[in-house]
Protein backbone atom coordinates (compact mmCIF):
# COMPACT_ATOMS: atom_id res chain seq x y z
CA UNK A 1 0.00 0.00 0.00
CA UNK A 2 1.02 3.59 -0.59
CA UNK A 3 0.42 6.14 2.16
CA UNK A 4 0.27 9.06 -0.25
CA UNK A 5 -2.41 7.40 -2.36
CA UNK A 6 -4.31 6.44 0.79
CA UNK A 7 -4.19 10.04 2.01
CA UNK A 8 -5.30 11.50 -1.32
CA UNK A 9 -8.10 8.95 -1.65
CA UNK A 10 -9.28 9.62 1.88
CA UNK A 11 -9.33 13.35 1.24
CA UNK A 12 -11.39 12.83 -1.93
CA UNK A 13 -13.78 10.47 -0.17
CA UNK A 14 -14.25 12.62 2.90
CA UNK A 15 -14.75 15.84 0.98
CA UNK A 16 -17.70 17.83 2.23
CA UNK A 17 -20.38 16.56 -0.16
CA UNK A 18 -19.31 12.91 -0.16
CA UNK A 19 -18.89 12.91 3.61
CA UNK A 20 -22.45 14.19 4.02
CA UNK A 21 -23.73 11.48 1.66
CA UNK A 22 -21.97 8.82 3.71
CA UNK A 23 -23.69 10.13 6.84
CA UNK A 24 -27.20 10.15 5.38
CA UNK A 25 -27.94 6.43 5.58
CA UNK A 26 -26.66 5.71 9.13
CA UNK A 27 -28.31 8.87 10.46
CA UNK A 28 -31.60 7.98 8.79
CA UNK A 29 -31.47 4.49 10.30
CA UNK A 30 -30.61 5.93 13.71
CA UNK A 31 -33.61 8.24 13.52
CA UNK A 32 -35.80 5.29 12.54
CA UNK A 33 -34.49 3.15 15.41
CA UNK A 34 -35.10 5.92 17.94
CA UNK A 35 -38.60 6.48 16.60
CA UNK A 36 -39.48 2.79 16.78
CA UNK A 37 -38.10 2.52 20.30
CA UNK A 38 -40.08 5.60 21.42
CA UNK A 39 -43.37 4.55 19.85
CA UNK A 40 -43.33 0.75 20.20
CA UNK A 41 -40.97 0.10 23.09
CA UNK A 42 -37.83 -2.08 23.22
CA UNK A 43 -37.20 -5.22 21.17
CA UNK A 44 -39.58 -4.23 18.36
CA UNK A 45 -38.37 -4.19 14.76
CA UNK A 46 -34.84 -5.37 15.55
CA UNK A 47 -34.39 -7.73 12.60
CA UNK A 48 -36.15 -5.40 10.18
CA UNK A 49 -33.95 -2.40 11.01
CA UNK A 50 -30.58 -4.01 11.76
CA UNK A 51 -30.55 -6.99 9.42
CA UNK A 52 -33.03 -5.87 6.77
CA UNK A 53 -32.32 -2.18 6.31
CA UNK A 54 -28.90 -1.86 7.92
CA UNK A 55 -27.08 -4.92 6.63
CA UNK A 56 -29.18 -5.61 3.57
CA UNK A 57 -29.51 -2.12 2.09
CA UNK A 58 -27.57 0.63 3.86
CA UNK A 59 -24.21 -1.15 4.12
CA UNK A 60 -23.93 -2.16 0.44
CA UNK A 61 -25.02 1.33 -0.61
CA UNK A 62 -22.31 2.84 1.59
CA UNK A 63 -19.78 0.45 0.03
CA UNK A 64 -20.96 1.44 -3.45
CA UNK A 65 -20.64 5.13 -2.66
CA UNK A 66 -17.20 4.68 -1.08
CA UNK A 67 -15.71 2.65 -3.92
CA UNK A 68 -17.15 4.89 -6.63
CA UNK A 69 -15.75 7.92 -4.80
CA UNK A 70 -12.17 6.65 -4.43
CA UNK A 71 -11.81 5.45 -8.03
CA UNK A 72 -14.73 6.42 -10.26
CA UNK A 73 -14.11 10.19 -10.59
CA UNK A 74 -10.47 9.66 -11.55
CA UNK A 75 -11.50 7.31 -14.33
CA UNK A 76 -14.31 9.56 -15.52
CA UNK A 77 -12.17 12.71 -15.82
CA UNK A 78 -9.08 10.91 -17.08
CA UNK A 79 -6.83 11.90 -14.17
CA UNK A 80 -6.21 8.22 -13.41
CA UNK A 81 -3.67 8.23 -16.25
CA UNK A 82 -1.54 10.82 -14.43
CA UNK A 83 -1.69 8.80 -11.21
CA UNK A 84 -0.64 5.65 -13.04
CA UNK A 85 2.27 7.50 -14.65
CA UNK A 86 3.96 7.44 -11.25
CA UNK A 87 6.39 4.58 -10.50
CA UNK A 88 3.90 2.77 -8.30
CA UNK A 89 2.66 -0.78 -8.81
CA UNK A 90 -0.91 -0.97 -10.08
CA UNK A 91 -1.60 -3.59 -7.42
CA UNK A 92 -0.43 -1.11 -4.79
CA UNK A 93 -2.75 1.57 -6.19
CA UNK A 94 -5.68 -0.87 -6.15
CA UNK A 95 -4.89 -2.06 -2.61
CA UNK A 96 -4.57 1.52 -1.36
CA UNK A 97 -7.91 2.48 -2.86
CA UNK A 98 -9.46 -0.65 -1.34
CA UNK A 99 -8.18 0.14 2.15
CA UNK A 100 -9.72 3.62 2.09
CA UNK A 101 -13.06 2.40 0.74
CA UNK A 102 -13.13 -0.49 3.21
CA UNK A 103 -12.41 1.80 6.14
CA UNK A 104 -15.27 4.09 5.14
CA UNK A 105 -17.64 1.14 4.64
CA UNK A 106 -16.85 -0.34 8.04
CA UNK A 107 -17.13 3.05 9.73
CA UNK A 108 -20.39 4.17 8.11
CA UNK A 109 -21.89 0.78 7.28
CA UNK A 110 -20.81 -1.85 9.81
CA UNK A 111 -20.27 0.19 12.98
CA UNK A 112 -23.85 1.56 12.99
CA UNK A 113 -25.30 -1.97 13.05
CA UNK A 114 -24.55 -2.80 16.71
CA UNK A 115 -25.41 0.77 17.71
CA UNK A 116 -28.82 0.46 16.06
CA UNK A 117 -29.30 -2.86 17.81
CA UNK A 118 -28.51 -1.39 21.20
CA UNK A 119 -30.94 1.48 20.62
CA UNK A 120 -33.78 -0.92 19.83
CA UNK A 121 -32.81 -3.59 22.34
CA UNK A 122 -30.33 -2.35 24.99
CA UNK A 123 -29.86 -5.81 26.49
CA UNK A 124 -28.83 -7.51 23.24
CA UNK A 125 -25.09 -6.92 23.44
CA UNK A 126 -24.08 -10.32 22.08
CA UNK A 127 -26.59 -10.09 19.25
CA UNK A 128 -25.36 -6.61 18.33
CA UNK A 129 -21.77 -7.86 18.20
CA UNK A 130 -22.89 -10.70 15.94
CA UNK A 131 -24.34 -8.25 13.45
CA UNK A 132 -21.16 -6.19 13.63
CA UNK A 133 -19.18 -9.29 12.65
CA UNK A 134 -21.61 -9.78 9.77
CA UNK A 135 -21.13 -6.16 8.78
CA UNK A 136 -17.34 -6.44 8.68
CA UNK A 137 -17.50 -9.54 6.47
CA UNK A 138 -20.03 -7.89 4.17
CA UNK A 139 -17.94 -4.70 4.04
CA UNK A 140 -14.87 -6.57 2.81
CA UNK A 141 -16.77 -8.48 0.12
CA UNK A 142 -18.90 -5.58 -1.12
CA UNK A 143 -15.90 -3.23 -1.24
CA UNK A 144 -13.84 -5.68 -3.28
CA UNK A 145 -16.72 -6.32 -5.69
CA UNK A 146 -17.73 -2.69 -6.16
CA UNK A 147 -14.12 -1.53 -6.55
CA UNK A 148 -13.77 -3.97 -9.44
CA UNK A 149 -17.00 -2.62 -10.93
CA UNK A 150 -15.69 0.94 -10.63
CA UNK A 151 -12.56 -0.09 -12.52
CA UNK A 152 -14.55 -2.00 -15.14
CA UNK A 153 -17.27 0.45 -16.12
CA UNK A 154 -18.30 4.07 -15.81
CA UNK A 155 -21.75 2.81 -14.91
CA UNK A 156 -20.56 1.10 -11.73
CA UNK A 157 -23.19 2.81 -9.57
CA UNK A 158 -26.03 1.58 -11.77
CA UNK A 159 -24.56 -1.92 -11.93
CA UNK A 160 -24.05 -1.93 -8.17
CA UNK A 161 -27.61 -0.83 -7.50
CA UNK A 162 -28.95 -3.56 -9.77
CA UNK A 163 -26.81 -6.10 -7.93
CA UNK A 164 -27.99 -4.97 -4.50
CA UNK A 165 -31.70 -4.71 -5.22
CA UNK A 166 -32.15 -7.39 -7.88
CA UNK A 167 -29.63 -10.10 -7.06
CA UNK A 168 -29.20 -9.69 -3.32
CA UNK A 169 -32.71 -8.46 -2.61
CA UNK A 170 -35.20 -9.99 -5.03
CA UNK A 171 -33.53 -13.23 -6.14
CA UNK A 172 -31.80 -13.71 -2.81
CA UNK A 173 -35.18 -13.91 -1.10
CA UNK A 174 -36.87 -16.02 -3.78
CA UNK A 175 -34.25 -18.60 -4.78
CA UNK A 176 -32.58 -20.72 -2.11
CA UNK A 177 -29.60 -21.55 -4.33
CA UNK A 178 -28.59 -17.89 -4.58
CA UNK A 179 -27.29 -18.08 -1.00
CA UNK A 180 -24.08 -19.68 -2.27
CA UNK A 181 -23.25 -16.56 -4.29
CA UNK A 182 -24.89 -13.93 -2.08
CA UNK A 183 -22.82 -11.62 0.11
CA UNK A 184 -25.89 -10.96 2.23
CA UNK A 185 -26.29 -14.68 2.93
CA UNK A 186 -22.62 -15.04 3.82
CA UNK A 187 -22.78 -12.15 6.26
CA UNK A 188 -25.91 -13.52 7.93
CA UNK A 189 -24.11 -16.83 8.32
CA UNK A 190 -21.31 -14.98 10.10
CA UNK A 191 -23.82 -13.42 12.50
CA UNK A 192 -25.44 -16.80 13.18
CA UNK A 193 -22.04 -18.32 13.91
CA UNK A 194 -21.37 -15.69 16.57
CA UNK A 195 -24.81 -15.67 18.17
CA UNK A 196 -27.22 -18.63 18.14
CA UNK A 197 -30.17 -16.25 18.43
CA UNK A 198 -29.72 -15.32 14.77
CA UNK A 199 -32.03 -17.67 12.87
CA UNK A 200 -31.15 -18.79 9.34
CA UNK A 201 -33.65 -20.42 7.02
CA UNK A 202 -30.84 -22.12 5.13
CA UNK A 203 -27.15 -21.63 5.93
CA UNK A 204 -23.94 -22.05 3.96
CA UNK A 205 -21.52 -22.75 6.81
CA UNK A 206 -19.14 -20.27 8.35
CA UNK A 207 -16.05 -21.71 6.64
CA UNK A 208 -17.65 -21.26 3.23
CA UNK A 209 -18.97 -17.80 4.09
CA UNK A 210 -15.57 -16.48 5.20
CA UNK A 211 -13.73 -18.16 2.32
CA UNK A 212 -16.18 -16.87 -0.28
CA UNK A 213 -16.00 -13.32 1.08
CA UNK A 214 -12.19 -13.47 1.08
CA UNK A 215 -12.16 -14.70 -2.53
CA UNK A 216 -14.46 -11.88 -3.67
CA UNK A 217 -12.38 -9.30 -1.78
CA UNK A 218 -9.01 -10.50 -3.12
CA UNK A 219 -10.32 -11.08 -6.63
CA UNK A 220 -11.79 -7.58 -6.67
CA UNK A 221 -8.47 -5.98 -5.71
CA UNK A 222 -6.58 -8.17 -8.17
CA UNK A 223 -8.94 -7.35 -11.03
CA UNK A 224 -8.78 -3.65 -10.21
CA UNK A 225 -4.99 -3.73 -10.41
CA UNK A 226 -5.17 -5.62 -13.71
CA UNK A 227 -7.66 -3.13 -15.09
CA UNK A 228 -5.49 -0.19 -14.02
CA UNK A 229 -2.59 -1.70 -15.94
CA UNK A 230 -4.69 -1.60 -19.09
CA UNK A 231 -5.43 2.09 -18.50
CA UNK A 232 -1.75 2.96 -18.25
CA UNK A 233 -0.73 0.88 -21.28
CA UNK A 234 -3.42 2.10 -23.65
CA UNK A 235 -4.01 5.55 -22.19
CA UNK A 236 -7.74 4.88 -21.91
CA UNK A 237 -10.17 6.59 -19.57
In percent, how helical is the residue content? over 70%
Please tell me how large the radius of gyration is.
Answer: 18 Å
Estimate the strand proportion: under 5%
Q: Could you give the count of β-strands? A: 0
Low-confidence stretches: 233-237
The overall pLDDT, averaged over residues, is 84
Order of helices and strands: HHHHHHHHHHH
Give the number of domains.
1
Kindly name the structural category: mainly alpha
What summary fits the major beta sheet?
A: none
Tally of contiguous helical segments: 11
Shape: globular
Cα(first) to Cα(last) distance is 23 Å
Describe the SSE topology:
Layout: H1 3-13, H2 16-40, H3 46-70, H4 72-76, H5 80-84, H6 90-110, H7 112-120, H8 125-152, H9 156-174, H10 183-194, H11 206-234
Helix pairs in contact: 1-6, 2-3, 2-7, 3-6, 3-7, 3-8, 3-9, 6-8, 6-11, 7-8, 8-9, 8-10, 8-11, 10-11
Folded structure, characterized:
By secondary structure, this protein is mostly helical. The protein has one domain (3-234). The protein contains eleven helices and no strands. The protein is globular. The chain starts with a helix and ends with a helix. 43% of the residues are buried. Residues 233-237 have low confidence and may be disordered.
Amino acid sequence: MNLVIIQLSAQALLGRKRFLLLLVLPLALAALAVTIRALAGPDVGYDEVVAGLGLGIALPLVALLATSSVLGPEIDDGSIVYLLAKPVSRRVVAASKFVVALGATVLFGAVPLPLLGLVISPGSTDLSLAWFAAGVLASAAYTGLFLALAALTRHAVVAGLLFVFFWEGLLGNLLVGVRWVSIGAWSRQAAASVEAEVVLTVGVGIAYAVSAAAVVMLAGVWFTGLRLRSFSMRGET
